[in-house]
Amino acid sequence: MDLEVSPALTIPASELGWRFSRSSGPGGQHVNTSDSRVELIWSVADSAVLSEEQRMLLLSRLARRLVAGALTVTASEQRSQLRNREIALAKLAELVTAGLAPDGPRRRATKPTRGSNRRRLAAKGQRFETKRNRQRPSAE
Q: Which residues, in sequence order, are CB contacts of 95 under 8 Å at separation 6+?
């Protein structure tokens, strides 16, 4: 089951690794017997479908989530392993899409307005007066 991230990028099922384990949460006694928790592992560093530019972009943007160049996504929200698989695939697609998205527009630097400057200085003066009133009166 290939994962279509975008019309231009499809991750083949052969590059996806699955791991299953017992999940905590709802399910009663059923939880103790079935492996419904899903871990989906995809190696960004070794993927053949990514261009070198896309690979470098994902490796830099998702660096905090990568372990040895592999991205791991976990899903245990549902009682069904099949639903958790679908959720994990959707999470992976969302992460990769966000990682490959172009940067937003840069912030244009502006000067503070005259009014905001005046308010800042008034608040600063008020803090000064408050702190000065806390001091002991001088001996004079």
A: 62, 65, 71, 73
Predicted confidence (pLDDT) per residue in 1-49, tens digit: 788 888 888 888 888 899 888 877 666 666 666 778 889 999 888 888 8
Tokens of 26: 């709802």
DSSP string, 36-99: -EEEEEEETTT-SSS-HHHHHHHHHHTTTTEETTEEEEEE-SSSSHHHHHHHHHHHHHHHHHHH
Tokens 């003066």 correspond to: 125
Describe the chain by its helix, strand, coil percentages, rounded to 5.
Answer: 40, 20, 40
Distance (Å, whole) CA 104 – CA 97: 14
In contact, 95 and 65? CB cutoff 8 Å: yes
Q: Which two tokens stand for residue 130?
A: 């408050």
38 touches 74 (CB < 8 A): yes
How many beta carbons lie within 10 A of that of residue 102, not counting itself? 6
80: left (phi over 0), alpha (psi -120 to 50) or beta: beta
Full-model pTM: 0.69
